[in-house]
Amino acid sequence: MADRDVDLFVIGAGSAGVRAARVAASHGARVMVAEEYRVGGTCVIRGCVPKKLLVYASRFSEEFDEAAGYGWTISGRTFDWPTLIANKDREIARLEAAYTATLERHNVAIVKSRAVFEDAHTVRLANAMRIRAGTILIATGARPNFGPEIPGLEHVISSNEAFHLRELPRRIVIQGGGYIAVEFACIFAGLGSKVTLVYRGENILRGFDDDVREHLRNEMRGRGITVTCGHTVTAVQRSGGEFVVRLSDNSEVKSDKVMFAIGRRPNVANLGIEPLKIRIHEHGGIEVDEFSRTSVANIFAVGDVTNRVNLTPVAIREGHAFADTVFGGKPTPVDHSNVPTAVFSEPEVGVVGLTEAQARDRLAKLDVYKTTFRPLKSTLSGRDTRVFMKLLVDATTDRVVGCHIVGPDAGELIQIVGVAVKMGATKADFDATMAVHPTAAEELVTMREKAASYGRHAAE
Ligand SMILES: Cc1cc2nc3c(=O)[nH]c(=O)nc-3n(C[C@H](O)[C@H](O)[C@H](O)COP(=O)(O)OP(=O)(O)OC[C@H]3O[C@@H](n4cnc5c(N)ncnc54)[C@H](O)[C@@H]3O)c2cc1C
User: Fold this and answer.
1) What's the rounded Cα separation, in Å, for the pair 354 and 401?
2) 399 Cα: distance to centroid of ligand 1 (angstroms)
3) Starting at the edge strand that comes first in sequence, how are the strands of the sheet with 387-394 ordered?
4) Ligand 1 mean position to 235 CA, how many Å?
5) Per-residue pLDDT tens for 66-81?
6) pTM of the complete model
7) Which tens digits make up the pLDDT trace of 86-96?
8) Pocket residues for ligand 1 (CB within 6 Å)?
């Protein structure tokens, strides 16, 4: 392939692109990756990592409140947003440098430029330079969606800008009901902002188990967040130093910032893919097969741009599998089932497998186990909060097909439960596992009473 500059050209150095580039290079491929913004992509620069740092910051307020019941007196506590943002930015810069160094160590050439297709084997960089490649990988991720045009949309920020606000807003309206909207609502509330969450659907976290949605909404309300479902923001008007946010029921909320987190759109526009006839799926992502191959044989796509399961570990797995398939001689499909996931709200959510509604649809017989209880820590602190846990069991096979947790460290717990569910653990396996006492997690192995049974043998 003498007419090729590289074996693989990767467009986008995010979670998926970086992993694919590094692994392909380690298989011996000559690799170049283009990044138009910052190496590391959404997760590292303006997604998971900075968000989790803000989550940590926001949780101190509850810790301080709870400390009193344990005998602590904490006086004169203050919070400085610019310090948090500066420290967060320093850590993100360190991570970006680490990602860059890893690529360089694997002899991946990095070009800091936007890249677009010229033809199926050629990409054009911003300086008009053309690179010929045997294989091209689209790993361009996704961007915030702002929805239909409304008056005052220019005043609205997305999560991208939320990471760089000069000051903590005293009041913020957030539109959206997905995990990013919910997480930012909890972050700002924990840091002391007055938060109004506006969501057009009937309850937050669409797609999650209904009990989880209800439990979290109540917990958020208990923490002073106004959760307004069934409405949308119809206009944002600047009025002096504040914004007047009009909702679809004609009510108004005054706010210092307005943020929309109403979904993300795969980055497929202006990439030059239309003439190549790369097929776009009806959900807006690039259509790919199980090996992430697009409708054009030498062009692949991984990560959020394919709009399959839009999470960092999935993007990384897809990037790795692509490199093993195309450059490692080991065809590797990615299994998108039973992906454990967390919402870093306050309290946290951790889920894996089917929701109760999905399980009822798909299984002949279903047993539901659930529990809600006051965490031990709250007994002395007096905090009014409850943990929620649910196990869904296929009553025909006894396999645990879903686990849903709302409570402290739910994200950590669900990682481990995810292993058991992926392995096909049965309810009997859970029951046979000795409890760790005193923990919240022990409830997962001590739930004996069915809350409900559905199916041919249904009792309820
Ligand atoms: C606020 C927020 C919080 C999140 N929290 C979590 C979480 O807690 N856990 C989790 O698992 N996931 C989380 N995610 C999702 C996660 O960030 C994404 O799933 C993941 O980053 C997808 O990786 P990717 O490589 O597909 O895309 P990205 O990481 O978005 O990388 C794509 C890269 O391509 C670049 N690019 C785009 N077009 C071009 C072009 N034409 N030329 C050159 N470069 C280009 C972009 O600048 C970007 O750097 C979060 C996302 C957001 C926005």
Assistant:
1) 6
2) 34
3) 341-343, 349-353, 400-406, 387-394, 365-373, 452-455
4) 29
5) 999 999 999 999 999 9
6) 0.97
7) 999 999 999 99
8) 11-17, 34-37, 41-43, 47-48, 51, 114-116, 139-141, 159, 180, 267, 271, 303-305, 310-313, 315
